[in-house]
Design a protein that fits this description.
The chain contains three helices and 18 strands. It is of the alpha+beta class and 299 residues long. The strands form three sheets. It has a ten-stranded antiparallel β-barrel. Strands 12-11-18-17 form a four-stranded antiparallel beta sheet, with no helix packed on it. Strands 13-14-15-16 form a four-stranded antiparallel beta sheet, with no helix packed on it.
Length: 299
């Protein structure tokens, strides 16, 4: 008859079992580890970053303000995720389509980059470009010998907030697009404030983005009134020796009978703000990315 084994023996046996298990599972873990290429990881990031709505409203405005030669006109760029890549539409602010393309990404081990194949909507292949990672952005370039395909870009640059498209051609001036954020607005006439019990009319569900878009409504007096949002990215300073800071700006505008547009006033705040308002007393306007109906209450 034997007595209970010493606790020291049990601890030793348990340690041995755990050690053998760690070798077994550790070996399996090492066998499963497979490092990918950097461009494989880059492809995943580019896929997430690409889609969105972009506009070069800042570039078009400041090109005119600076009176540069060959100023860029307004462009909107919509990149939508599709089953086989991205559907890409380049258009004017009035909706006129300038180009429709299909983009698809693939790893290119030979080039050590992300290859982006480009085609027209009818499937005609255009010149591809290759994406590589830079400091805080990705850049893409096409082969220099591809000179006849003017629909395909010669270079692209993608960051969190901007997308630059350099066309093929003699000038090769990049279209400098900014990522747009979508806002919903309402306007109250008159602009009641301070808790006053005054009747007003609300015009709501007004939608626009913050890259120079406008939204319009007709008030009960027949006036064609509107709001404009522009997230201003200053490429210059407006005073010598002064650093002009970027701002999100809301404008109250009106379309007059002669076809001209009158600006009644504007207000501005930090560029990263997700809501902005203005009260001109005869009108109050508020624009927001998240409605107060669904926003999380805070202290």
């Amino acid at each position: 008859m034997t007595g209970p084994r010493p606790l020291k023996f049990l601890n030793s046996t348990l340690f041995s079992l755990l050690w053998l298990c760690s070798l077994t599972y550790g070996g399996q873990s090492l066998a499963q580890g497979q490092d990918t290429t950097p461009w494989s990881r880059d492809l995943q990031v580019i896929e997430v970053m690409l889609h969105g709505l972009y506009s070069n409203a800042n570039q078009a405005y400041f090109d005119g303000r600076r009176k540069i030669d060959n100023p860029q006109s307004r462009h909107n760029l919509l990149i939508e995720t599709a089953d086989d890549g991205f559907d890409v539409t380049l258009s004017a602010p009035d909706g006129t389509v300038m180009s429709n393309q299909k983009w698809s990404l693939a790893e290119d081990d030979q080039r050590e980059a992300v290859r982006m194949d480009i085609s027209n909507t009818d499937g005609t292949p255009l010149c591809p470009v290759w994406w590589t990672r830079d400091a805080a952005q990705f850049s893409a370039k096409g082969d220099s010998e591809c000179t006849e395909d003017h629909d395909s870009p010669s270079a692209l640059a993608l960051s969190e907030q901007q997308f630059w498209w350099t066309p093929r051609g003699a000038s090769e001036v990049p279209v400098k697009l900014h990522r747009a954020r979508q806002f919903t607005c309402y306007a109250d006439i008159p602009g009641v404030g301070g808790g006053r019990d005054i009747p007003y009319t609300r015009y709501d569900n007004l939608s626009l983005h913050d890259q120079g878009a406008e939204t319009w409504f007709v008030d009960k007096d027949g006036r064609n009134l509107g709001l404009r949002l522009l997230n201003v990215d200053w490429p210059i300073n407006n005073y010598d020796g002064y650093f002009t800071r970027d701002s999100l700006v809301i404008y109250v505008i009106e379309q007059l009978d002669d076809g001209s547009t009158k600006e009644h006033g504007y207000a501005f705040t930090l560029p990263e703000a997700n809501r902005i308002g203005i009260n001109l007393k005869w009108m109050l306007a508020s624009c927001f990315m998240i409605s107060g109906k669904v926003d999380t209450p805070t202290m």
